[in-house]
Specification:
Layout (H helix, E strand, L loop, with lengths): L2 H17 L2 E3 L8 E5 L5 E5 L2 H5 L11 H6 L6 E6 L19 E3 L2 E5 L9 H12 L8 E4 L2 E6 L2 H18 L9 E4 L2 E3 L2 E4 L2 E4 L1 H8 L7 H12 L8 H10 L11 H15 L13 E7 L3 E9 L4 E10 L8 H7 L24 E7 L11 E7 L5 E6 L5 H16 L4 E4 L8 H10 L2 E4 L9 H17 L7 H13 L10 H5 L25 H29 L13 E5 L17 E11 L7 E4 L3 H4 L7 E3 L3 E3 L25 E10 L2 E9 L10 E2 L6 H11 L2
Parallel strand pairs: 16-19, 19-20
Antiparallel strand pairs: 1-6, 2-3, 4-8, 4-9, 5-6, 7-8, 10-11, 11-12, 13-14, 14-15, 16-17, 17-18, 21-22, 21-25, 22-23, 23-24, 26-27, 27-28
Helix pairs in contact: 6-9, 8-9, 13-14
């Protein structure tokens, strides 16, 4: 330190010790000290608490907005300003926290007894204390910003009453004012960087002078400093965003720093307009108000004015640069408005019919694979009763075929619960195979498969899968090989937990009111209770359970339907319409990138609607025959996977054909033979037409590519006349 700083340090330490604000410390903390020169050229002792602040939990208590405080002065004629003496030092620190404020100097190691400057939570703590103290006066005639207390009144008599009330409150709370900085019953004074008077507010002269003396910036940091000071007074500058635009662009470190003539003109113009800044009136909610606006493709501006009975006076200027996205031409703006990801999907939610009683309708699905069990199981077949929500988790092999799955369903569900009337499932190959379809037809069970890639239809089993997986994580070993052993426990826990849809446990509804309990908790039955389950009372109780469950399920479906349809629109697709089909619905095995494919294929006509309703929500699409030979896709699609086709009003693109997906083997499907060539009276090449080729194709196909019998026979028939 310099000699001057050492002398000031010694003097200030002695003064702080004499006042009892600091005392010697043996704390493990130790912040360094430095000095900052005040306006009156004196040296101020400061402590660098950055390391301590980085470890402090921040108090996010807000400080008042300066523009909000200035607006509260509307209509005030007399103002008094009180400044608290050594503001933070008037708060004592709790003894257990004082060691954290320790600082080290050449003359010793000290810690604070009172709250020092530099702590990150000091402003919020001080503001909260002052707000609490003057809560009943706040915003009526008292404004507080940290240690600056403003008392405003419309008349001198009111000012005397208000000022006395504030001073009495400060004396009772034992706060001390700095008499040299206080001003009483003034009509003009400085407050928070502004000069306040009855006519309005204007920037401080010394702040304007600092801006006028600012030299041209040479780097991004200096530009930011200048813009920060000028931006504080932007409310006084009309068209601020337009004037400051060249300088604003230089605030980004990614932009090169060429101080061009345009930037230089912006820099000097900001200085000039601030020098000529008008006096802005303070907003008064009782006066007539108007807002004048102006916009363009590059910026927007506004001025707020009020009428005082004589003339209109400006209250505030607003200016903002238009984002670059809004500066493009109208054509590109229209293109930006097209966003398919924000379109609501077609087809409102239609819950499945509620079964009349348990066992009539089930839903099933498979989940996996899991680590292979010692019995060879690596998958789970989940079966859920759609009314009672009773679930069974049956282990199976992941690649089990339909003939292997049928005995599992028979022993795991049908033997205990009878054959269901219908089964809801997804499009698993087992559930749509010829064997499974024939088996269900023989047993009188109707299969209700969901549409392709629409698992929401079978949502009950999907939810049961999630619950089972969550419970498995908590029960199995780290090697995950014992998951099959835990399935009975998971099944018991699932079925004996209250289901929110039916308002009771699945076990209770499915088995007629007998609550599931752990075996150790079950008492031995009494002879009189053995046949109690079949008594008329039990029958009536079960019917009550059934009615209650169906009512609860109906309410749950209504809530689910309302929630789901909030972001859906009714389906407008009808039989005979041309529609686009989502690319995701096609299994393309050729080496092509889906990212480069169009989002939709088609358009193709709708032949019929699946279900009881004429508007879907699933439809049968007529896919061209030359595509069905190569694409393994089910022709039934959910409405959310379709988009209506809107033909162009004029043929802007003559010759455009429908967008078909690429074939799986890379070959083109030949529709007809146009002509052929022979060599030595033998067929050597043909020229044909293909639905997947462009009209400009003129290449012939060699003889070895003409092997298909249909093509050869057609050619021979045409050749023979």
């Amino acid at each position: 330190m310099r000699e001057e700083e050492l002398e000031v340090l010694r003097t200030q330490l002695d003064d702080l010790i004499d006042k009892g604000w600091i005392h010697p410390s043996c704390s493990p903390y130790g912040a360094p000290v430095l000095f900052v020169r005040k306006k009156n050229k004196e040296m101020r002792l400061c402590i660098d608490y950055r390391k301590l602040n980085a470890q402090t939990i921040n108090n996010v208590g807000p400080l008042p907005r300066i523009d909000d405080l200035l607006e509260r002065l509307g209509g005030a004629k007399y103002i008094s300003k009180l400044d608290l003496k050594a503001k933070y030092h008037q708060f004592e620190i709790h003894p257990r926290d004082r060691y954290k404020t320790a600082f080290k100097t050449r003359h010793g190691h000290f810690e604070w007894v009172v709250m020092p400057f530099g702590l990150t939570n000091a402003p919020a703590t001080f503001q909260a204390a002052m707000t609490t103290e003057f809560r009943d006066m706040l915003d009526w005639f008292v404004l507080i910003y940290l240690d600056d207390i403003l008392v405003s009144s419309r008349t001198l008599d009111q000012q005397n009453v208000h000022l006395r009330a504030v001073l009495d409150r400060l004396r009772m709370a034992k706060y001390k004012d700095n008499r040299a900085k206080c001003e009483f019953a003034q009509q003009e004074l400085e407050y928070l960087g502004h000069f306040v008077m009855p006519q309005g507010i204007r920037p401080l002269v010394d702040k304007i002078k600092a801006i006028q003396d600012w030299s041209e910036p040479t780097n991004t940091t200096e530009v930011r400093s200048f813009m920060g000071l000028v931006g504080y007074y932007q409310r006084f500058i009309g068209g601020y965003a337009r004037i400051a635009a060249p300088l604003s662009r230089l605030q980004s470190p990614q932009v090169p720093f060429p101080f061009t003539d345009e930037v230089r003109n912006s820099f000097h113009k900001l200085k000039t307009v601030l020098l000529l800044a008008p006096v802005l009136s303070i907003y008064d909610p009782t006066l007539p108000t108007r807002v004048t606006t102006d916009t363009s493709g590059y910026g927007m501006g506004a001025v707020l004015e009020q009428h005082d009975g004589v003339d209109w006076h400006s209250v505030e200027y607003f200016s903002q640069k238009v984002p670059p996205i809004n500066t493009i031409d109208d054509t590109r703006k229209e293109l930006l408005a097209l966003s398919t990801r924000n379109l609501n999907p077609y087809g409102e939610l239609r819950p499945l019919p509620i079964p009349g009683e348990p066992g009539l309708s089930i839903a099933m699905d498979v989940t996996g694979p899991f680590p292979r069990h010692r019995f060879g199981h690596d998958d789970i077949l989940t079966v859920v009763d759609r009314l009672s929500k009773y679930a069974q988790f049956l282990p199976r092999k992941y690649h089990a075929t339909a003939p292997e799955l049928a005995p599992l369903l028979h022993t795991g569900w049908i033997c205990d619960h009878d054959i269901p009337e219908d089964i809801v499932s997804d499009h698993d190959t087992c559930f749509i195979s010829t064997f499974w379809t024939s088996l269900m037809k023989e047993s009188g069970t109707e299969m209700k498969p969901s549409s392709a890639r629409h698992p929401q239809t079978d949502g009950q089993t999907e939810r049961a899968h999630q619950t089972a997986q969550v419970m498995l994580r908590t029960l199995i070993r780290t090697d995950q090989k014992d998951w099959v052993d835990s399935l009975p426990d998971i099944e018991f826990a699932y079925n004996t937990s209250v289901h929110p849809t039916i308002g009771m446990t699945p076990f209770e509804l499915h088995h007629g009111g007998r609550k599931g309990r752990i075996f150790a908790d079950l008492p031995f039955p009494k002879p009189a209770d053995i046949d109690a389950a079949y008594s008329p009372t039990s029958v009536r109780k079960y019917r009550d359970f059934l009615a209650k469950a169906r009512a609860n399920m109906q309410k749950a479906q209504v809530r689910m339907q309302q929630q789901a349809n909030r972001r859906r629109v009714p389906c407008s697709i009808r039989v005979g319409d041309l529609v686009w089909v989502s690319t995701e619905e096609f299994a393309l095995k050729q080496d092509v990138s889906r990212k480069l494919l169009p989002k939709w294929f088609g358009p193709w006509p709708v032949t019929s609607a699946e279900g009881d309703e004429t508007d879907g929500p699933s439809f049968v699409i007529e896919i061209p025959s030359h595509l069905t030979l190569h694409l393994t896709v089910h022709p039934v699609f959910h409405a959310s996977k379709l988009a209506t086709y809107t033909p162009a009003k004029s043929d802007d693109f003559p010759g455009r054909r429908s967008q078909d997906p690429p074939s799986m083997d890379g070959h083109l499907e030949v529709d007809r033979v146009i002509t052929h060539r022979k060599h030595n009276n033998k067929l050597c090449s043909t020229k044909s037409h293909s639905s997947g080729a462009t009209p400009m194709t003129r290449d012939g196909f060699p003889r070895q590519l003409c092997e298909p019998p249909l093509l050869t026979s057609t050619l021979i028939m045409r050749r023979n006349g």
